[in-house]
Amino acid sequence: MNPDIILNYIKRNLIQLVIGLAFFILTFIIIQPLFKAKQVIIGLDQTVVRTSNNRFAGKLGTLDQGKKVSVLSENNDWYRIRYGKQAIGWIPAWNTGRGFQKGQVASKLSESTIVIDPGHGGNDSGALAINPKNQEKVYTLRTSRVIEKHLQQAGAKVIMTRDKDVFVDLAPRPKMANDLKADAFISIHYDSAANNNDGTGDTTYYYHKNNGSLQLAKDINQEIVNNVPLYNRGVDFGDYEVLRDNKRPAILIEGGYINTKKDFKELSSSDYPTKVANSVTIGLKTFLNR
Predict the structure, then answer these.
(1) Which spans are transmembrane here (predicted)?
(2) Residues whose CB falls within 8 Å of the CB of residue 59, separated by 6 or more in sequence, listed in order
(3) How far apart are CA 92 and CA 33, in angstroms?
(4) CA 19 and chain centroid, separation
(5) Can you tell me the distance from the alpha carbon of 184 to that of 204, in angstroms, rounded to the nearest whole number?
(6) 240: closest CA among 193, 188, 197?
(7) Cβ(82)–Cβ(31) under 8 Å?
(8) Whose CA is closest to 50, among 1, 93, 6, 101?
């Protein structure tokens, strides 16, 4: 073909050609992410699709367990997804690709972020049992790990302030919950008396009355009464830094007296962490469903 003819054609149709090229580039930019989008599988039945990346956002619909969806982007551990033909919304990233039970249904807990705080750690042993080889820091972490597992099985996003025997100062613990805008903060401790065998029972502490902490303490303590065979000392005010500096619903559980023989036998038993974990999980569901 004659080059002059081509040149003249371009000159006559330059505007149309520029518009066409721009349209092609724009279409490519919009469509390209769809080809690159990763696929994830919905882990819980009736997973709510929301208008933005938080559990309080508007509800667009629900998705069935096992459905495959495309991830367009991720923000604060929520996925922006495409589902169906044109629908776009947000789901919790932690509710995908995990080994949930068949038919397990999504809940408010499964959309929630929970901070679990195993007390003490590292060079801070905490209280000592009658046998000083038994340190509080060991049992707080032991119990917290089982709580973490139960909450994850229920679909929650769980953050541990420590997941091994390391020292964590007090201030970063409530800060973590505040920064994450956690739905609840639960600190695990064990009590001690000035003299061996002088104290007994578990206590649930709160500091703030008006941010949900008192109600959270009541709901979880009620389940501790139902599940843990120790004398229950009830819900009480506790002026602890991890509670005082916490803007989120926050409680501290003193799960029995580590230096009382009867209490230690229970809190060191193989099934004790499961009893506490069940209490925390059920209590949280009650609290979040209010």
Answers:
(1) 14-35
(2) 48, 49, 50, 51
(3) 20
(4) 49
(5) 14
(6) 188
(7) no
(8) 93
Res 98: pLDDT: 80
Cα distance between residue 204 and residue 150, in whole Å: 20
Helices 213-227, 272-288: axis angle to 10 degrees equals: 140
For residue 289 the two structure tokens come to: 């469903």
Structure tokens at 32: 């390209």
User: What dihedral do alpha carbons 256, 204, 248, 214 form, nearest 10°?
Assistant: 180
Cα–Cα–Cα angle for 126, 128, 129, rounded to 5 degrees: 145
Distances (CA, A) of 241 to 83, 141, 203, 238: 45, 19, 17, 9
| DSSP helix/strand/coil, 285 | helix
- The SS3 assignment for 231 reads coil
The total of other beta-carbon atoms located within 10 Å of residue 172's CB is 12
- Please report which helix (H) or strand (E) contains residue 149, including its range: helix 136-153
**Residue among 231, 287, 281, 230 nearest 116 (CA):** 281
Can you point out the beta strands (E) in the chain? 38-41, 47-50, 59-63, 68-75, 78-83, 87-92, 113-118, 157-160, 184-191, 202-206, 232-237, 250-257
| pLDDT one-digit tens code per residue, 6-25 | 556 556 655 665 566 666 56
pTM here? 0.87
User: What is the per-residue pLDDT for 15?
Assistant: 66
pLDDT tens, 119-162? 999 999 999 999 999 999 999 999 999 999 999 999 999 999 99
Q: What is the DSSP-derived secondary structure letter of residue 95?
A: G
